[in-house]
Amino acid sequence: MCGIAGIYSAQRIEERDERALQDMLQTIVHRGPDSQKVLVERDHGLAMGHTRLIINDFKTGEQPLRSRDGRFLLTVNGEFYDFKRHRALAMADGHRYLTKSDSEIALSLFAQYGLEFTKYLRGEFAFCLYDKQERELYLIRDRFGIRPLFYHCNGKKLVYGSEAKAVIAHPDVPRRLRPEAVLHQLMQTMAPGMSAFDEVQPLEPGRILRVREENGRLVTKEISYWDFDFPTMEERAPMSEETAIESVRENLIRAIILRLQADVPVGCYLSGGIDSCCILGLATGAMQSPVKAFTISFDHDSYDESAIALEMARSMNADHEMIHLKADDLYGENYVKTVLHSERSFYNTLGVAKNLMSKRVWECGYRTVITGEGSDELFGGYPAFKRDMFKHGLDHLPPAERADLERQLHESNKLFKGAILSDNEVEHPAFNSLCGFTPSWIQPWIRTLAVARPLLSRELQETLKDYDPIEAIANKIDGKMLDGRHPLDKAQYTWSKTQLEGQILNWGGDRVDMANSMESRPAFLDHHLAEAATRIPPEYRIKGNIEKYVLREAVRGVLPEVLYKREKFAFMAPPAHTDEKKKARLEELLQEYASPEKVSQAGLFDAGQVQQFLKDYRSDPDPVSLTRKDTIVNHLLCLQILHRHFVDQQPG
After folding, report:
1. Which of 115, 318, 429, 466 could make an SS bond with 293 (beta carbons 3.0 to 4.6 A apart)?
2. Cβ-proximal residues to 545 (8 Å cutoff; 6+ apart), any chain
3. Minimal CA–CA distance to 574: which of 326, 276, 279, 246?
4. Same domain as 292, residue 195
5. Which residues pair with 38 in a beta bridge?
6. CA dihedral 404, 405, 406, 408 (to 10 degrees)
7. 152 and 22 share a domain?
8. Cα separations (Å) of 490 from 230, 373, 437, 480?
9. How many domains does the chain have?
10. In 3-state terms, what secondary structure has residue 158?
């Protein structure tokens, strides 16, 4: 795991660019503390940089890499699994590798297959490949966006990096927050292809950005090489329950085995959920020895899953590390650092907790862990998916039976109403047109928008007066991927194109793990497993009132009975309003970053509206309203922090 940064110019690389690249690499040195290296091809207008975290090949894996004939140049952030098989096949045909790194297979595969080589790349990655003969540069990101990659292009110069902070470190890139992104973050959901920063955008998952120089200017083209593609209702082939279960089991075991391969020890994250527990169980079976497991414990019983995690760890004889977190841990400096690494706002301090967990992983001598992200996306695990299944995907059931299922859903998710389930249903015409209904996952944030928009400064309100963020999100989703699909497929797809990449794999994944130079490997997001999951009939993903039914059955043998029967529990840190100490620590941050003076200085929000909102928040007794307001407080605070550290503090 590493960090990459670089510059591609329509003219020769200048000394100014070389100095800028060194500054860019320094902003992401946490992604690769073991070594930093730069390659400059002035006549090609190219400067490539790499910061390395050694997971494989301690001796010969330094990057940038060159092909044996010198034609191709490469820097990689990520892991290519199954690389030993590809190396063996290539060497049988006479190819000789220069290193033992997994990254080098991208060079031989590209030389053999051109852009079709992506179908052979299995893993999580974001990388830059340059073809000196064709004078073309390619930025390529993995299928789900597990690894980040951002770029700025002004027609004459492309600046790219693993994190947005690396891109804005170049003096030619503006350092300002994007107005639309301020509103999107305040109401929770970014549009695909949007970053927090103006003129800096993420390469979207499953995409290739091709860049070439033509007549003194850079010409870019985005190419989609993969998507989370559910079959249409007509295309869906009959499948027995036994076949579905076996398919999930086989593909998951294979994904885990591949992710256990490294030249350093591999551990596991362990919550009290099915996803991480089954990974620990299957990894233990594959290793045939105890696995190191790391668990977060919160100081609030309603949000703490550590008892179930402890039971699972004991059943697997795991070497178990418990990280106990309290108010002092979740706020203050740790909160600010998490915002700066995430480069976007978050609605809950779970990201802070995961940042602290990855720090503990590093302190224990581990550089990589297998994690459970992606399971809910593949197998319909979220309460919002169940609601859509009950309302739109069970037409064969009597209305009374569907209503009873939905009532049970709301009863079991009272704690999170207002954040992950809307208390009252709301629709939006753009999503109704796209999906035939408004997915339940976005409904809480549509309702949040009505509270969030008035908080904006008058200038931003004027700028965004005709801007509809919900419509913008819907417009960025490919309707062809929804046509003819089951309602559950539509809910899972739209969530995965927005919330998965934008937050779960961001402040819940790579960004807080790599903040501490620690690589996370989400086994469920193996694309072979994902493709198998799309073929699982909806009624096996959610069967009756049981979410992730097919996964539960596939891993039943390694789960404690209490977990096998347990309904999905949203993994969240206790919000500030649940504890007087957390309230006090939150107030300290608000005073530091969101006082009337600081709000006015930043110019993002109206100071009077913010103070009135905070007054209402502090006195609100309604748990649903309070949960919704708590998310807005976090987003507002995060945006103020981003502005202070990335915009106000301009480089000298």
Report:
1. 318
2. 386, 405, 408, 409, 567
3. 326
4. no
5. 49
6. 90
7. yes
8. 9, 19, 10, 11
9. 2
10. strand
Look at residue 602 and tell me if it is in a domain. no
Per-residue pLDDT tens digits for 203-238 = 999 999 999 999 999 999 999 999 999 999 999 999
The length of the chain is 652
pTM of the predicted model, to two decimals?
0.95
Same domain for 56 and 193? yes
Judge whether 202 and 152 are in contact, CB under 8 Å: no
Q: Return all residues near 251 (Cβ < 8 A) that are at least 6 apart.
A: 526, 528, 529, 532
CATH number assigned to the domain comprising residue 319: 3.40.50.620
* pLDDT (mean) for 195-209: 98
DSSP string, 401-423: HHHHHHHHHHHHTGGGBTTTB-S
| Domain co-membership, 200 together with 266 | no
- Per residue in 98-148, pLDDT (tens digit) is 888 999 999 999 999 999 999 999 999 999 999 999 999 999 999 999 999
Q: What are the CA-CA distances from residue 450 to residues 186, 187, 313, 490, 629 (Å)?
A: 11, 9, 44, 25, 11
Whether 144 and 262 share a structural domain: no
pLDDT tens figures, 30-42: 999 999 999 999 9
Same domain, 178 and 313: no
Domain span at residue 185 reads: 2-224
Exposure of 444 in the CB half-sphere (CA atoms within 13 A): 24
| Structural domain includes residue 196 | yes
Q: Given the structure tokens 């400096």, which residue do they identify?
A: 333
459 is a domain residue: no
